[in-house]
């Protein structure tokens, strides 16, 4: 299978704690009376790209959002089970959710720059953390924009509104905003579905470069994209993980009929 990046296969069921960025055990989630996630058990490997695929409404984004507790923002959400991020139980009462969201950054389908200039967008989180020494801030903004492969395109216009950027540039700006906080994990929820094919390729190549420094989990409807960029893929159906393995195996030799039907387009 044509891969965008080199990778070594590991059996995800055999990952050690040392190799694991996120460990999910017995996770159930309800919105009101509706149960959306059912007994999820999986380990997300460190410094790899893991994709979640499955039909619309199967719970991909909900599962992703558990990793930095974004679901807390949806009023009637009840979670049971355990999620360890680098060994820390993120649903413990003592968890500092702001710190968690800085170390587990999230990027959504629609680029959402703040209504401010490019520089302020990238430095926003750092300012909230109280780091205000101007030189340090300048260096951090430059580094984050370089890491997001955007620096060369914006270095002459850092103080212009973010809204003047193209959709693909805005998405990289939002990635830079997350990277400025030096996250150990980056959650990408359909990050390219609003972008053209060339810009999509730029973001996919960026993911390959970023996985050296952080673990990436991506939700995508695009199976070619999952096969191209991800090292591991989990197929979800109605809130359950049906199959989870290295992406080559899942896309070429699925073990479950449901997975095969989905990836061959027989449903969904
Ligand atoms: N805040 C919420 N309140 C109530 N129900 C919700 C909420 N968020 C999601 N749901 C429901 O949870 C289920 C799973 O939604 P989710 O967005 O996780 O699916 P998905 O697989 O990511 O779908 P898509 O591919 O369409 O984005 C859906 O039935 C959805 O309606």
From TrEMBL:
Enzyme kind, highest EC tier: hydrolase
GO cellular component terms given for this protein: membrane
EC number: 3.6.3.27
Superkingdom of source: Bacteria
Domain ABC transporter: 22-263
CDD domains: ABC_PstB_phosphate_transporter (cd03260)
Gene3D superfamilies cross-referenced by the UniProt entry: P-loop containing nucleotide triphosphate hydrolases
Pfam family, one: ABC_tran
Keywords linked to the UniProt accession: ATP-binding, Cell inner membrane, Cell membrane, Hydrolase, Membrane, Nucleotide-binding, Phosphate transport, Translocase, Transport
UniProt GO molecular function: ATP binding; ATP hydrolysis activity; phosphate transmembrane transporter activity
GO biological process: phosphate ion transmembrane transport
UniProt protein name: Phosphate ABC transporter ATP-binding protein
Organism: Alteromonas sediminis
Lineage, broadest ranks: Bacteria, Pseudomonadati, Pseudomonadota, Gammaproteobacteria, Alteromonadales
Gene: pstB
């Amino acid at each position: 299978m044509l891969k965008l990046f080199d990778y070594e296969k590991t059996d995800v069921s055999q990952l050690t704690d040392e190799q694991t960025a996120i460990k999910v055990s017995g996770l159930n989630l309800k919105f009101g009376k509706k149960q959306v996630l059912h007994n999820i058990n999986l380990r997300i490997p460190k410094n790899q790209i893991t994709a979640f695929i499955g039909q619309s409404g199967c719970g991909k984004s909900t599962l992703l959002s558990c990793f930095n507790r974004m679901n807390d923002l949806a009023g009637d959400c009840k979670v049971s089970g355990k999620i360890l991020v680098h060994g820390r139980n993120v649903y413990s009462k003592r968890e500092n959710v702001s710190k968690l969201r800085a170390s587990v950054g999230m990027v959504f389908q629609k680029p959402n720059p703040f209504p401010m200039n490019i520089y302020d967008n990238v430095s926003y989180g750092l300012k909230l953390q109280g780091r205000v020494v101007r030189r340090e801030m300048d260096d951090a903004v430059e580094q984050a924009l370089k890491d997001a492969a955007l620096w060369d395109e914006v270095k002459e216009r850092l103080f212009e509104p973010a809204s003047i950027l193209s959709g693909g540039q805005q998405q990289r700006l939002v990635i830079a905003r997350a990277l400025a906080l030096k996250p150990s994990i980056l959650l990408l929820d359909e990050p390219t579905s609003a972008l053209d094919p060339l810009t999509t390729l730029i973001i996919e190549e960026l993911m390959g470069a970023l996985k050296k420094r952080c673990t990436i989990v991506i939700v995508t409807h695009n199976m070619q994209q999952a096969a191209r960029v991800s090292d591991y893929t989990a197929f979800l159906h109605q809130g359950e993980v049906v199959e989870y393995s290295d992406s080559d195996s899942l896309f070429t030799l699925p073990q479950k009929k449901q997975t095969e039907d989905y990836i061959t387009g027989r449903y969904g």
